[in-house]
Design goal:
This is Transposase. The chain is mainly beta. The chain is 6% helix and 57% strand. Among the domains are: 68 residues, Outer membrane efflux proteins (OEP), CATH 2.20.200; 83 residues. The two termini are 44 Å apart.
Length: 452
């Protein structure tokens, strides 16, 4: 009996493992938010309640690996719910140097793009402009990845653009149930006379927007976990932010201009490079990114956005300090400088139109950011954590302050209190840049988070 049992045990130990248990992680968050300044046209947006959930999973078998990261949320109002697939892919099995991935997957194409949420490489999901999230590119990835070297090839037949607040027509304008929607101007100067614009939307078929192929390459030398490293990436793919084209019609007997707005897709060549060094509690890097958007000509009687090429430079420094009141704090300092990146509306002959919907591609162009995160104290032997971020943009002469405090009464529960403050030096500014446009969005929030 014992000999048979031993033989059986040995036989079992020699058999290959066909499958590992699935790894599943999740989070549920309930949050209330109060804005200090009401919007006269939409007073209901002053206060909100938001319930969100996120689920991530990984299943490894002997013949295929599957992974997904999905989330959803609702503001408890009609048309104000969302569902997002951040990542979802299948992969060749095993912990091998060469792996193939098919689906939507995130990669570190550019340090600058990731740190500053530029959305140049990977699309973003931003129903809240102060909380953008990177989304993976969708397609086929062939990745040869070793500790000190990586080479990645990416190809795709489809395009998934940036996602933001839902937009609709209402009262002649384009509106949204969001305080973070950037509405175009409704004033139009026609023969030195201000006319009111009446907007309408013309949404093309989804297949026309989605069926746009692209591809990219990325290589890494060195290990980001320690020592010097370098990353270089190139891509030819659609610009993640949809461009807008419009058709104008003016009735000279009225003071109105009818404008039809329609989204469209254009391509760009994108290049980026990062150099960095990691040592113990210190990480430093410098980054460069540039793109060359393709000019797209509209049909007669239409105008379309022409994206100007941009060149961006960034430096980053991360370090942690131990034994501060027996606690550890993590610090991060980043600087971003962008040249170019403007937007001009052009006509069918390539000449500039006399009206432009938006004039900048990026939220920040000359910014310094400072962050601190760590456990400040303990109450009833449970951690009290703070997150602090301050950003100042020299071009906009404005700043954004984010603070968040988390108390963990148990390992799975967290109580959250936070706030965001936006301000500019010139309170009378009429600039359409990001900070000035949203400076009325100072807010406080609080809630609970449960992780499993």
């Amino acid at each position: 009996m014992s000999g048979a049992a031993s033989a059986s045990a040995a036989s079992t130990m020699e058999m290959p493992e066909l499958s590992r248990p699935a790894q599943v992680f999740g989070q549920i968050r309930m949050e209330t938010m109060q804005y200090f300044t009401p919007i006269p046209e939409q007073p209901q947006l002053t206060y909100s309640q938001f319930l969100s959930a996120r689920l991530s999973g990984l299943k490894e078998t002997s013949w295929i690996d599957l992974a997904a990261d999905v989330s959803g949320g609702t503001f408890f109002a009609r048309g104000q719910s969302h569902y997002v697939v951040h990542e979802a892919y299948i992969a060749s099995p095993g912990n091998t140097d060469l792996k193939a991935y098919l689906g939507r997957k995130k990669k570190d194409w550019s340090e600058m793009d990731r740190r500053w949420d530029l959305g140049m490489w990977q699309p973003t999901f931003a129903i809240d402009a102060l909380r953008p999230e990177d989304q993976g590119l969708a397609g086929l990835f062939m990745d040869y990845d070793r500790p000190n070297f990586e080479f990645l090839i990416f190809v795709t037949p489809i395009f998934i653009p940036n996602m933001g607040p839902d937009i609709r027509e209402e009262g002649g304008g384009l509106v949204s149930n969001s305080r973070w929607y950037r509405a175009p101007s409704r004033d139009y100067d026609f023969n030195n006379r201000i006319n009111t614009i009446q907007y309408s939307l013309d949404i093309p078929e989804t297949t026309k927007l989605v069926q746009n192929p692209g591809g990219g390459l990325m290589t890494r030398l060195g290990n980001k976990g320690g020592g010097p490293w370098a990353v270089a990436s190139y891509g030819y793919m659609p610009v993640n932010e949809l461009i807008l084209k419009r058709q104008n019609f003016k009735d000279i007997s009225q003071d109105n201009v009818d404008v039809t707005v329609s989204p469209d897709v254009t391509y760009h060549h994108i290049y980026s490079a990062d150099l960095g060094y990691s040592f113990s509690n210190l990480k430093a890097s410098v980054s460069y990114l540039t793109d060359r958007p393709q000019e797209k000509r509209p049909d007669t009687d239409w105008s379309i956005q022409r994206l100007e090429a941009l060149q961006a430079y960034s430096t980053a420094l991360e370090f942690s300090l131990d034994n501060i009141f027996d606690k550890t704090l993590a610090f991060q300092v980043d600087y971003l400088k962008v040249d170019g990146g403007g937007i001009t509306d052009i006509l069918a002959d390539g000449g500039p139109d006399d009206f432009t919907l938006f004039d900048q591609r990026l939220k920040f162009t000359n910014s310094l950011s400072f962050r601190v995160e760590g456990q400040l104290a303990s109450f009833w032997r449970r951690p009290f954590v703070t997150r602090f971020k301050y950003l100042y943009d020299y071009d906009q002469k404005g700043s954004i302050l984010n603070t968040e405090f988390l108390y963990y009464p148990s390992q799975r529960w967290a109580m959250i209190v936070g706030g965001d403050v936006l301000g500019v030096q010139d309170e009378d500014s009429t600039s359409a840049r990001f900070i000035n446009q949203y400076r009325a969005n100072d807010r406080v929030y609080g809630g609970l988070t449960y992780v499993f």
